[in-house]
Amino acid sequence: MKKKSKTIHILFLITCTIFTMPAIADNGNWTIYTSYHSPQKAVKIGKSYYVLASGNLCAYNTEDSSVETFDKTNALSDFGIYDIAYSKSTNSLFILYTNGNIDIMRIGKQCINLPDLKNKSIDKNFNEVNITGEKAYISTSTGIVVVNIKKSNFENFYNLRINVTKTRVSNTKIYATTSNGVYVGNIADNLLDTSNWTLVSLTDIQKDTEYSSLKNENIADAEGLALAKENIINSPVRNYSYKLNMIGERLLVTGGQFYFIEGHPDYVGTVMKYENNIWTNFDEQSVLKVIDSWSYNNVTDVIQDPKDSEHHWVGVARSGLYEFKDYKLVKLHSLGNSPLKSARPFDKDSARYVRITGLQYDNEGNIWMLNNQTDTIVRIMKNNGKWLAYYYNEIAGFPSFDNIMFDSRGWAWINSRRTTTSGHIAGLLIVNTNGTIDTQDDDTHKFISTISNQDGTSYTPNQYYCATEALDGSIWIGTESGLFVSYNPENVFGSNFTLSQIKVARLDGSGLADYLLSGVPVKCIAIDGGNRKWIGTIDDGVFLISSDGLETIEHFTTENSPLISNAINDIAINGQTGEIFIATRAGLCSFVSDATDASDNMDDNSLKVYPNPIRPGYTGDVHVTGLMFNSNVKIVNAAGKLVYEGTSIGGEFTWNCCYKNGKQCSSGIYFVLGTDEEGKKGACTKIMIIR
Fold first, then answer.
1. Lower CB density within 10 Å: C or N end of the chain?
2. Residue 535: helix, strand or coil by DSSP?
3. Residues 6+ apart with CB under 8 A from 585
4. CB neighbours of 228 closer than 8 A, spacing ≥ 6?
């Protein structure tokens, strides 16, 4: 069971837009950034309208002008709602998820989760939910699922082997509407036996007075739906998140994809900004005035002008480079007005195939990008508006480049995503321009597709996903074959360059070790202030590993945390707050960690403590930020006696307000004494505890 959700009080009957602070669960500090922009259905329960919007749930209270939001952090068991329905006889909201999971929300009480349907190998292509009395009847593409709401259990599955569009139930019969007619079954019979169902034509069924008198108890409320549409909660415009770009405390989000394979649909052009708890959606109408909606989909990247915070560049996997000012399109750079090329130059719709990914600014303010599936992949728009093109024979025509990472030397690490049957090869292109981007004569480059590790084992991954530089200068590389590290990346252009796989000792006394995340497809890697690695995987959630990789600190999945999908697209970190933003296939969520960026210097004024004072009833940690990297921290009482000590993670230190023996500290003033690793710089601040 889950905790009841938090309530947010606002005057939604007066204002046209509702703003809501994200609800953070007490257990784990998770936030789910759900969209409420497309209200689909509303049901009236007491004084509130419960609204299904963009696959998420909220409630508008007409009596006290409040809005309640429900998600996996505070009330629900899953993410991605297909339908909701109200059971009057049990005073419960029936919640059906797209994956077959079910929550029964007893109004005013906690949710009950029914995972039976989700876990069973039963058809999950749903059409409709009908509530009759104490039972829910779910129409699917092969039959009818019956759930007993009062008993909170999965009751039956009537496998009719035909698409059932709706189900109605009388005192004695069940009616299943299909394209062939209506199948009728007597409740007293064994309806698991398909021979006990009778097919009646749509015309003849109207003569059945019992059927004609039936109504769907789950009637949508038009007034509640209109209210929700007039008062949209401030939220992401869609549950899309693909690439993340953290600039200070501003998060930029794109909602596309760059897969172009079966099973991965096109995503409507989506670019969003999140800052100061407010979402701003890049204006789509300004785009659609100059280009059709089909061309403006699958947005892959967004970067911000270092000299103008309201000037942005957006890469689209379909149609070129988009320039935005004040979140409105000002220019589309594509065929005809730029050197960018089409992946299908002889197609009549060639402008729809200008595939741009990997946007990055270099240190000189030049924009690098990847013009996929053309002979010249790497292109640069200089800070003076002029264009450059870098040709590399090894990658000419390759279709799936999507990331550029500049390391501390200014070298570019560019991934060729996948190996194809057409002869395109997955790998890494490393480019050293020697600081002269206008000429390639003095450049050095290398394309790596096969990896040799420290033990001489060779790998040729079919997917290269990412390369990220850690705080110590090592390069961490994510591939289909797992995680690899270069501890000496300056040697990459040498003939004997190898990568390492971290060995983690087994705890079985055998003296053997295993490679860390061997065989786990690593999609993205982000480095926090403590040089720890946050690793997103293709289908195994998120790992947090120690700075040296020898310890797995956390492994978040949908099963053990509020993470909304195990399929991770990207991770970005707010170094000021320690919030870890996680872009998933289902949408965006975050986790507040215990590491922030380290300060270059520290004094008494730089240290910040929160919460402070610690008031009665508070059971969480106290956080000290503003420390230098790996600072030594001591907590002492007013008498100078040592209470607790440890080392900061990046620039943050957390304390549970207890002595080292676990005993809770009493009321009083406590001092935080921090010194850098060498003991040359120090700072002090105070914490007040009130019991």
1. N
2. strand
3. 565, 567, 568, 569
4. 36, 39, 42, 49, 51, 53, 58, 60
- Residue 540's alpha-carbon distances to 16, 251, 537, in angstroms, are 41, 24, 5
Residue 147 lies in a domain: yes
In sequence order, the β-bridge partners of residue 177 are 166, 182
Q: Domain ends where: 207, 230, 253?
A: 230
Query: For residue 673, what is the enclosing H or E element?
Result: strand 668-675
CATH code of residue 612: 2.60.40.3110
Name beta bridge partners: 281: 272
Could you report the per-residue pLDDT of 541-586, keeping only the tens digit for each? 999 999 999 999 999 999 999 999 999 999 999 999 999 999 999 9
What is residue 189's predicted lDDT score, i.e. its pLDDT?
Answer: 96
Q: Which domain holds residue 652?
A: 608-689
Q: What is the pTM of this model?
A: 0.91
Fill in the DSSP letter of residue 268: B
Instruction: Give the end of a domain, one of 214, 230, 246.
Output: 230
Phi and psi angles of residue 392, each rounded to the nearest 5 degrees, phi first: -130, 115
Contact 589, 563 (CB under 8 A): yes
DSSP assignment letter at 549:
S
Nearest one of 271, 276, 261 to 327, comparing CA atoms: 271
Burial of 380-411, coded b for 16+ CB within 10 Å and e otherwise, reads: bbeeeeeebbbebeebeebbbbbbbbbbeeeb
Q: In whole angstroms, what separates CA 347 from the centre of its chain?
A: 35
**423 lies in some domain:** no
The 3 state secondary structure assigned to 296-350 is CECEEEEEECCCCCCEEEEEECCEEEEEEECCEEEEEECCCCCCCCCCCCCCCCH
CATH classification at residue 24: 2.40.128.630
Q: What is the pLDDT of residue 260?
A: 56
Instruction: Classify residue 314: in a domain, yes or no.
Output: no
User: How many structural domains is the chain composed of?
Assistant: 2
List the beta bridge partners of residue 405: 413
Contact 362, 349 (CB under 8 A): no
Residue with tokens 């029914």: 114
